Automatic annotation (TrEMBL):
Alphabetized PANTHER family for the sequence: POTASSIUM CHANNEL PROTEIN 2-RELATED-RELATED, TRK SYSTEM POTASSIUM UPTAKE PROTEIN TRKA
Keyword tags: Ion transport, NAD, Potassium, Potassium transport, Transport
PROSITE patterns, per database record: RCK_C, RCK_N
UniProt keyword Magnesium present: no
Residues in RCK C-terminal domain copies: 137-218
Residues in RCK N-terminal domain copies: 1-117
Identification of the protein by name: Trk system potassium uptake protein TrkA
Annotated InterPro entries: K_uptake_TrkA (IPR006036), NAD(P)-bd_dom_sf (IPR036291), RCK_C (IPR006037), RCK_C_sf (IPR036721), RCK_N (IPR003148), Trk_Ktr_HKT_K-transport (IPR050721)
Pfam hit, one: TrkA_C
Length: 223
């Protein structure tokens, strides 16, 4: 997979390094000469250019990319890069970094963004995830379909502890994608029984989050 990353700062280089280890082809783009540090990510391609300029993106052959990541420290730049990648070059997947949480509402399909990643929001979510049991934590927002990646650790008193996945009446527009149980990562099937302490990851419509949290967190009264 070919991935172009706009922004060769610490964030962009870190992403590039991870993706290179996974066997992907990486192009790093930055307009600042001081940011071009080939020795830090020697296996990546490097381009000294302004990613907001069409001529630069033509030179980068953005139309050949499967993914574009707008990872600069400037939200305005990330929005422009995302919009150009999607509308001018038809890039299938555009991921954008949100630096200021107040701007998060802009990072949507209208600006060509498929996935918006807010570093401050993600860090706070990870802190919540580490200390919360029984509370729904939003980890990531997807622009398409108004869906979020959410997590909940099943508390001991949950009504669904011991219930098989296939027997649960899950809310509409909600999908259980992973169960993390201790050191194991489980792909859920209908025969798996939920256990107290399970970390459950869902892709869910925002309108269903409260319903999902109630379902998983509350022990029903005995009739």
């Amino acid at each position: 997979m070919r991935v172009a990353i706009a922004g060769a700062g610490a964030v962009g280089r870190s992403i590039a390094g991870e993706l290179l280890e996974n066997g992907h082809e990486i192009l790093l783009i930055d307009k600042a000469p001081t940011a071009i540090s080939v020795e830090r990510v020697p296996l990546a391609e490097w381009l000294l250019a302004d990613a907001c300029e069409i001529t630069s993106l033509d030179e980068a052959a953005l139309q050949r990319c499967n993914v574009v990541i707008a990872a600069t420290g400037d939200d305005k730049v990330n929005l422009v890069v995302s919009l150009l990648a999607k509308t001018e070059y038809g890039v299938p997947r555009v991921v954008a970094r949100v630096n200021n949480p107040k701007n998060e509402w802009l990072f949507n399909e209208a600006w060509g963004v498929d996935v918006a990643v807010s570093t401050p929001r993600l860090m706070s979510a990870l802190v919540e995830e580490a200390v919360s049991v029984g509370d729904l934590v939003r980890l990531l927002r997807f622009s398409h379909g108004d869906a979020n990646l959410v997590e909940l650790t099943l508390p001991p008193e949950a009504a669904l502890a011991g219930t098989r996945v296939g027997d649960v009446d899950w809310p509409e527009d909600t999908s259980l994608v992973t169960i993390i149980r201790g050191t194991r990562v489980l792909t859920p099937n209908k025969e798996d029984a939920l256990e107290a302490g399970d970390e459950l990851l869902f892709v869910a419509a925002q309108s269903r989050e409260e319903q999902l949290e109630d379902l998983l967190s509350v022990r029903r009264e005995e009739a």
